[in-house]
Amino acid sequence: MSEERQKIQLQLAFMSGGRDESPRTIVEGTEALTAECKAESPAEADRLMEEILDPENLREALKRVKANKGSAGIDRMTVEKVSDYLKKHWPEIREQVLSGTYKPQPVLRVEIPKPDGGVRKLGIPVVVDRFLQQAVMQVLQRKWDPTFSEHSYGFRPNRSAHQGVAKAQEYMAEGNTWVVDLDLEKFFDRVNHDKLMGLVAKRITDKRALKLIRAFLNAGVMEKGLVSAIDEGTPQGGPLSPLLSNIVLDELDRELERRGHRFVRYADDCNIYVRSQRAGERVMESITGFITKKLKLKVNSEKSAVARPWERKFLGFSFTAKEPQKRRIALKSMVRFKGRVREITQRTRGVNLQGMVEELNVYLRGWRGYFGFCQTPSVLEDLDGWIRRKLRCFVWKQWKRGRTRYKELRKRGVHEALAAKTAGSPHGPWRLSQSPALCIAFPNAYFDGVGLFRLAVGR
């Protein structure tokens, strides 16, 4: 059996989900593809597509796509159905990819609200295209990531937003207490395709891979049932877009390094730290010119600024003004947090207290996993108290009538006179949520007993 035929057999075997099928069944119908691959065997330096289509890489790509789940694209295929589909159609898809005739389907355009207003446009590729993009991304990321700047923290293995925030803190400790906060306007929607492909072509020579990447960029979008072509942008939602964004912005990183700036970049969020306002204004003007002329992108002047770091937010965090500057949760992040907790604790949702606590805990654990990186534990303690008040409000509203409230308070050990006074109080639920009666009926220990997650202690 030829090497190429063995590869096809291995690929189809993995598509079958590990089921024991005869080699004849697995490779049936692939003889023409095998012959074509032999006839068009590329030079060793141009075998990137062979790496992308390696069975092990494909297996990992499929595993990642399934783990990420996500919505169906325009063909409505779910991740649960993709293995069976690939098992049946893989020889045809593989032939198209290798011959440069594969045509990705348009992405499904959806809009999600931004926390600070407006909407963010996402493009959801069909699952098969997500699988192929993931396979491409895995190979390219292994090759390209070691070449990226040490100041870049977004969409990279073994790098995180926390590391970026900590590096910003280091710059402030060195006396760089002014920040040039750059906001790129609709970055993912405005990346110039020709500019991007020129940068990609400097890094890879396999024309088949270049053609496939270009095909993903030009796939078009479906919005409200209509398909339209696009000639710029890398729609957020596909596995390949973050890596391509780093390719474009690596030029910005190199320019900032060349100028000797202290900076942190996470995707399209870039902060440059300087020692004075005047220096910051000079940097803002010159870097804005570079971004506009060289990268063909636009700086959002309304959202960008030269300011003190504690007057701005970066990756959800800000800093205290007093030295040494400590990490604190940005105001907008706090507003979003409280908004989400209010949604979960609405009285009209038809759940009991235990069910509400369980739903809250899912959100609280994830939120603390990120914002627990702050250095202001008193803020977390205050939020814990605020959450308990929201839950006391919820119970108080559920009891509704004064007589019911009185009986429930008495059952929970509240003295008769205090229970009567509280049950007949004209004050609203929020004020009563910190009253002596409700604190006796629902002390902190009660919420610990029902398993409410504490932000301050992380359990």
Lay out the secondary structure.
Blueprint: H1 3-15, H2 23-27, H3 31-39, H4 48-52, H5 55-68, H6 82-99, E1 107-113, E2 119-124, H7 127-144, H8 161-173, E3 178-183, H9 187-190, H10 193-201, H11 207-217, E4 221-223, E5 226-228, H12 241-258, E6 262-266, E7 269-274, H13 277-293, E8 305-307, E9 317-319, E10 327-329, H14 331-344, H15 353-371, H16 377-399, H17 402-411, H18 416-423, H19 429-432, H20 436-441, H21 444-449
Parallel strand pairs: 1-4
Antiparallel strand pairs: 1-2, 3-7, 3-8, 4-5, 6-7, 9-10
Question: Could you explain how this protein is built, in words?
Answer:
The chain has helices at 3-15, 23-27, 31-39, 48-52, 55-68, 82-99, 127-144, 161-173, 187-190, 193-201, 207-217, 241-258, 277-293, 331-344, 353-371, 377-399, 402-411, 416-423, 429-432, 436-441, 444-449; strands at residues 107-113, 119-124, 178-183, 221-223, 226-228, 262-266, 269-274, 305-307, 317-319, 327-329. It starts with a helix and ends in a 10-residue tail after the last helix. By secondary structure, the chain is an alpha+beta fold. The chain is globular and about 85 Å long. Strand 1 and strand 2 form a beta hairpin. Mean pLDDT is 87; it is low at 18-40. The chain has a four-stranded mixed beta sheet, with no helix packed on it. A four-stranded antiparallel beta sheet has the order 6-7-3-8, sandwiched between helices. The longest helix has 23 residues, at 377-399. The protein is built from 21 helices and ten strands.
